[in-house]
Amino acid sequence: MQQLLHPIPLTLAVVGFLLLLWPPRHLCQDRALAALVGLYGFCALSFLVSVAPVWTRLGDTTGHPAIGILGAFGTVVAQVSLQPIVVVYWVLPREKARRVARLCLGAGAVVILALTVLFLQLPNFGQTTPQGITAMYIHSGVYRTYLVLYVIAYTVGQTVLAVGCWTAARRTDQAWIARGLRTVGTGAVLTFGFSAVRLAGVGATLFGLSHPAPAAESFAWICADGGNSLVLIGFFIPTLALRVVPHVRVWARAHRDYRSLAPLWEAVHHAVPAIALRSAPTPTAVWLHFWDPTWRLYRRAVEIRDGQWALRNHLEESVRSAAEQRRRVVGLTGAELAYAVTADQLRAVLATHSHNGFAQTSTEYADADIREEIRTPDDDVRALLRIAAHFNTSPAEQEVATSWT
């Protein structure tokens, strides 16, 4: 049962760890995120160590067949120590959360040290497996102490986590955080079944009673792996809603806006090819362009503005006047009028440029009057998108300069 269930939380832990790790600079700014990344990382290690091939390879490499149990228990204790840290940084003031975090990390370090000391006193009974090590070592007093210490630390940690999550869920006004905390609390309580079976096995050995049936072992791992899966999912729910989803939306919006500016950019680029920044395509550049389209979007906006500037000598006053009159008739005013007229001017300018013409009575782009309202690159992108919308939907026939030479 253990080997069947472990891949589920292992996959959740690895996926969560990799998703939360990027970009790394956020870890220095967000203590809760750093603790969460560590939580997922230690959880992944605990399940990875308990996979039979990895367990065997560790034993062969270190010369101690049971070393896997120290790795599994040590990483689980580290995970349990980090779990409440995530919660306190979510719900408590930073200074108070820092004090609680130090207490949790200190307690976890003490338990791991004690487990290491006890492990070094375990007898060597030969080759072990993740499923059979407890049955092999349960008659050893040192192992029983080792197991009881681990189970008590694990249960205390999960109890603190469950109580803290349900308390915090009632106090927070953010729905996604509340849902995630309740899921975590439920998973923490479910793991109590694993602790109960392990303590029952130790008690049966001490008092000469019959050991729990094989079905109890399956029940223990269902509780342990199921509970851990819920904890991992619960911690990721608010992170997904508050961090990952917004990043995905920004990524999708940048790709959409980049494509929306394409017709306008292509028209301007055809007239003024020099606006495009030429760079050698590399696998890294292609990968970054896909995963971080914001730079390309901003670059496209700059190139369109460069093209506008290069074509400014072809602007004709009569085109602007006619466009303003026509656009006002359909009800456009204010900034939207300026963007629509600018789109008409660009179409006329491109036609004039293609005929090598020039303006008899020069003017400015209509949106020049509202450029002061553009304060950030995002503002400029939004403005160009509105120009592009009118440019893309303009009729094929537009007024051009009234006189060409």
Low-pLDDT residue spans: 284-288, 395-405
Provide a count of the helices: 18
Q: Report mean pLDDT, rounded to a whole number.
A: 86
Give the total of beta strands.
Answer: 0
Q: How would you classify the helix and strand content by structural class?
A: mainly alpha
Report the portion of residues in β strands: under 5%
- Overall, the morphology is elongated
Q: Gap between N and C termini, in Å?
A: 85 Å
Order of helices and strands: HHHHHHHHHHHHHHHHHH
> Main beta sheet: strand number and arrangement?
none
Helix content: over 70%
Radius of gyration over alpha carbons? Answer: 32 Å
How would you characterize this protein structure?
With 405 residues, this protein is mainly alpha-helical. The protein contains 18 helices and no strands. The chain has helices at residues 2-5, 7-21, 25-29, 31-49, 52-62, 67-91, 94-119, 133-137, 141-171, 175-190, 192-206, 214-260, 262-271, 283-291, 294-310, 317-329, 334-354, 377-393. Helix 11 packs antiparallel against helix 12 (214-260). The longest helix has 47 residues, at 214-260. 37% of the residues are buried.
List the helices and strands and how they pair.
Elements: H1 2-5, H2 7-21, H3 25-29, H4 31-49, H5 52-62, H6 67-91, H7 94-119, H8 133-137, H9 141-171, H10 175-190, H11 192-206, H12 214-260, H13 262-271, H14 283-291, H15 294-310, H16 317-329, H17 334-354, H18 377-393
Helix pairs in contact: 2-4, 2-12, 4-6, 6-7, 6-9, 7-9, 9-10, 9-11, 10-12, 11-12, 12-15, 13-15, 15-18, 16-17, 17-18
